[in-house]
Amino acid sequence: MTNDDSAFAALGALTDPVRRRLYRYVAAQPDDVGRDAAAEAAGVSRSLAAFHLDKLVEAGLLTASSRRLSGRTGPGAGRPAKVYRRAEVEHAVSLPPRSYGSVGHLLASTVENAGLDRELQEAARAAGAAHPDVDDDDLVDVLTERGYQPFWDEGTLRLRNCPFHALSEEFPALICGMNLALLEGIAPATWSPVMDPRPGGCCVALSRSSG
């Protein structure tokens, strides 16, 4: 199966509305999701949720593992439950085929080799600031629209997804610096984006400015 075939198969799995709801819910969560929680979020039975979740695993959109949701171990802790999380593999389809990834790699490589990190950050910050005024009430929606999948971790707004993940893997300093500058431009003055990388998420987190 070619890469295009795999991408078509993965996206085809989301034609079912129940699967779309389940995928969106699981993908947005910072932790593994059990069948009960996914079923409740999608408004379907546990057995139906299990069926569709496993189909999403087969399509490569989710990954599955087993663990005790109670957090206890030893006798009486119960059987391990099947849990799901978003797969790290990216799927993209363009008709006719386009090679934006190759261009992005070439541009990032050129900028890095030329030592233009500061100029890239300035451009990213200006691009973020060009967004219509964002206030505290809008910030989560704006970040969601841009694909960051924000979620609250106590008083910190963390980002489940990095929209630039593929390039950040190859050019971490360049792309993460650009991303931080972009979010500095987007965020209201009452917020402070900072570098705070965590496994399985974006390298930037946002917190309210003190004072």
Automatic annotation (TrEMBL):
Alphabetical list of Pfam families matching this protein: HTH_20
Lineage top rank: taxon: Bacteria
Record's signal peptide: none
Gene3D superfamilies, sorted: Winged helix-like DNA-binding domain superfamily/Winged helix DNA-binding domain
InterPro entries: ArsR-like_HTH, WH-like_DNA-bd_sf, WH_DNA-bd_sf
Name of the protein: Helix-turn-helix domain-containing protein
Phylogenetic placement of the source organism: Bacteria, Bacillati, Actinomycetota, Actinomycetes, Kitasatosporales
